[in-house]
Amino acid sequence: MKKLTFLFFLGGLLLFTAMTPDKHTTIFVIGDSTAANKDTTGGKQERGWAMMLQECFDADYIVVDNHAVNGRSSKSFIDEGRWDKVLERIKPGDYVIIQFGHNDEKPKADRHTDPGSTFDYNLAKYVRETRERGGIPVLMNPVVRRNFFVVAPKNDDDEKLRTSTFKDGVKMIEGDTLYDTHGLYRVAPKDVATRMNCHFVDANTITHNLEQGLGTEASKKLHMWYRPGEEPSEPKGKQDNTHYNIYGARVVANLLADALCQEVPILSKYRKK
Fold it and tell me: Where is the signal peptide (predicted)?
């Protein structure tokens, strides 16, 4: 009798669980190293902005699932099967933040795309397939690099900055004006969003205004920019004007969360203050 009662109880519990809707909405993030999860062992300071996005929302209702990966472009993220793994997890009502550009600019064949053609095609694919799963796509253009040089330093691979030291940094004098390094790669996501009636967050303008507002020196505090001996985890120092430290990632995440809530007002009720 006790066994039968237990089975009835277990069956009822399973039925109740099946009938109870999942109250969590997931915000997926796909993109490159500026958003990606990082190794935090040994006091390492580098962070992607999406690592800090969960701090911006009530975890009882919004779960951030960050799939951004170092060195990936809109092309390689698909070619490596990473998009398929995200796609199969999307449920109706989930959001997908799509942010590429930094590595699409690179000449390497496994990463390179062209704005106005292959870059736009890939972004449109992400939008279309997200919608087919019942998800809500949000396009973002790339965050800026901290580039106060009139002529941007030649940089074929932002990932090389991760292993460089302070002495490897650019030997150029900085000015007072932040200069763009993305060209049409910052324009294409907005164009695709307009054509496809998709949500868009102008991460490029937001981070440009942040860095320009801080100025040449104060903006270094956002990045992996340390003089030798200044940061224990980087004893040789570093001049990385692309990737964020803990402080920078947190600042950028909060700015982008605010912009996301303006673009998608329903998310505002879950925004942490």
Answer: 1-20
pLDDT tens per residue across span 204-256: 999 999 999 999 999 999 999 999 999 999 999 999 999 999 999 999 999 99
Tokens of 15: 């039925």
3-class DSSP assignment, residue 265: helix
Low-confidence ranges of the chain (pLDDT < 50): 1-21
Q: Let me know the angle formed at the C-alpha of 40 by 34 and 43, rounded to the nearest 5 degrees.
A: 120
What single letter denotes the amino acid at residue 28? Answer: F
The answer to whether the CB of 182 falls within 8 A of the CB of 224 is no
Structural domains in the chain, sorted by start: 23-270 (3.40.50.1110)
- Report which residue type is found at 138: V
3-class secondary-structure state, position 210: helix
Reference 90, options 129, 141, 42; nearest CA is 129
Full-model pTM: 0.87
CB 248 within 8 A of CB 240: no
> If you count them, how many residues does the chain have?
273
Distance CA 273, CA 251 (A): 13
Q: Which of 179, 151, 146, 21 is nearest to 91 (CA)?
A: 21
